[in-house]
Amino acid sequence: MSEAVNMVSSSDAGEINSGDPSRKTSVANRKAEKREIAKAKILKATLDIIASKGLAALSHRSIASAAGVQLAMTTYYFGTMDNILVTAFREFCNSMEPINADLVRDSDALLAELQGADGELKDCDRYIEGVADIFGNLIDTGPTCRVWQLSIECAYLFEQHPSEALAKEIQEYNDGLAEIALRFIRPIGGKNPELDAQLFLWTVQCLEFSAVSSVAIKGASNREALLRLLRGFCS
User: Fold this and answer.
1) Which residue has the higher pLDDT, 55 or 15?
2) pTM here?
3) Pseudo-torsion of CA 76, 79, 82, 84, nearest 10°?
4) Rounded to an integer, what distance in angstroms lies between the CA atom of residue 45 and that of residue 224?
5) Has residue 154 got a pLDDT over 80?
6) Average pLDDT value for the chain
7) 67 exposed, middle or buried (CB, 10 Å; 0-12, 13-18, 19+)?
């Protein structure tokens, strides 16, 4: 009798535990964690393939294989290849935030040193040289510090047939970069700082992409090339 009671009690306890909200929450949390881990693997694999082989090498199968997940998971979590591309691009943008934040701080520091109380530059030549130093160093260190990111950025920005959703993401990313470029260009005092900032951004991007490809600028350093461009904004 006592044994039977104990068996019933154990069974009842199991039923109570199985209905315990905290236990259900724990199970749900573990499932959510596994889901996020799988999604992160898929996105990392997508970006790795883009960096090493380009967008043309992407497929659900190649991504799943590189991520070490079941083939069905890429469709289950993201649906279409375009959704994978868009979400992976957002992950790339997140990886660029520290670099862009450093550029903003560099801009503030340069202005703090060379901008007068009236907002005008105390020494425009020194300021231009400072800008060329900052971005020349950024480009020069790309092949050793940011090959992965530059390869991905180049692949996305030069994608000829992006979907509407991806094109919107790329445009927003470039708009953000243009705003950073404008922080550096506006103090120079050119007649059209917005256009100058775009020209400066495109030049920096081309030099960056050249630094990780087989095509490089000849006869001058990246800093010297930027100096020629920046001085032209003053005229």
Assistant:
1) 55
2) 0.84
3) -20
4) 37
5) yes
6) 89
7) buried
Residues pairing with 115 in the sheet: 121
Q: Which three-class secondary structure state does DSSP give residue 115?
A: strand
CATH level 3 topology of 88-232: Tetracycline Repressor; domain 2 (1.10.357)
First to last CA, the chain: 102
> Residue 121 forms beta bridges with which residues?
115
* φ and ψ at residue 163, rounded to 5 degrees: -70, 170
d(CA 27, CA 21): 10
Q: Is residue 207 a contact partner of residue 225, using CB atoms and an 8 Å limit?
A: yes
Would you call 193 helix, strand, or coil by DSSP?
Answer: helix
Q: Contact, 137 vs 103, CB < 8 A?
A: no
- What's residue 24's pLDDT? 65
- DSSP state string for 16-57: HHHT-HHHHHHHHHHHHHHHHHHHHHHHHHHHHHHHHH-GGG
Domain with CATH 1.10.357.10 in the chain: 88-232
Hey, what amino acid is at 188? I
Distance CA 68, CA 116 (A): 57
φ/ψ of 121, rounded to 5, equals -75, 135
